[in-house]
Design goal:
40% helix; 2 helices; mainly alpha
């Protein structure tokens, strides 16, 4: 199974914003305060992310919070 989550090596706030834009464009955007494994599809109610994708998202977002703090919650406001 392929992972639909774009890779991210945190460098700048703008790159973080672009990463969230990639999630949005792929129909995968979710609120970073929520654990990825808890996100369900609107249609059908099944999980949006596989276990592998949820792990990748949770680790990526945790790294973003460590680097950028609460600015992660407003990635379009620099």
């Amino acid at each position: 199974m392929s992972i639909r989550i774009p890779t991210f090596q945190p460098q700048t706030f703008d790159e973080m914003s672009q990463w969230f834009g990639q999630l949005y464009s792929s129909g995968l955007l979710y609120h970073p305060d929520d654990p990825a494994e808890s996100i369900v599809r609107i249609e059908g109610g099944g999980r949006l992310f596989s276990d592998q994708e949820a792990l990748a998202l949770n680790q990526t977002v945790a790294g973003m919070f460590a680097q950028f703090g609460d600015r992660v919650l407003t990635p379009t406001e620099n």
